[in-house]
Specification:
Blueprint: H1 2-41
């Protein structure tokens, strides 16, 4: 039972980490474009 819980925990952590990485990648990809557009506007 302990091994199974460990597996689930690792799986959840990995998925959460991957999710955070993808969010950060999207954010860093979009942020320069948005700031460039706002600089052009202002």
């Amino acid at each position: 039972m302990g091994i199974w819980e460990h597996e689930v925990l690792c799986h959840t952590v990995c998925h959460t980490f991957a999710f955070c990485i993808s969010i950060a990648t999207v954010y860093l990809d979009l942020f320069p474009r948005v700031s460039m557009e706002t600089n052009v506007i202002f």
